[in-house]
Each structure stands twice: as C-alpha cells, then as structure tokens.
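> Could you send the Acyl carrier protein prediction when you get a chance?

Sure thing. Input:
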Amino acid sequence: QTNPEIVDKVINIAREQLGVDDNSEVTAQSTFVDDLGADDLAIREFVLALEEAFEIEIEDEKVQSISTVGQAAEVIEELLK
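Output:
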C-alpha cells in the first residue's frame, strides 16, 4: 500500500497543476485524462511539479505508464526508497 502522505501530496499537486475544481473529488483512482481532463502538456507540467516537490527524477518511460493519481504516487514512493 502506498504511503497516504505521498498520495495526499500528489492529489494536492494534481489539483493545483491541472486546475481541478475544489468541489471535484480527486482520489488515488482518478485518471489524469478522463477524470481530471489533462492533456499531454498538462501531464508533463504535472510531472515536473512532482519532480520538484519530491526532489526526484521520473523517467519518460515511467511517465508513460502512469494514468492515475495512485500510480503516480507508487512511482514516487519507489523512487524515494
């Protein structure tokens, strides 16, 4: 199970970066494209914000495999180990 603090931080960054309405629910299951309306550019900017916030570097191929908030949190947790 992914660390809830990481998930919360990813959710907050997603809200901020993707301009998600405060009334919209964002969970670990939320998908960037379908649920949060992100396009490729928005996802790239989101990844940059994650890299900055967590002081990590996410490889492009890893980015391709991320489609939900929870998956992003998992990748980050792996990189922080």
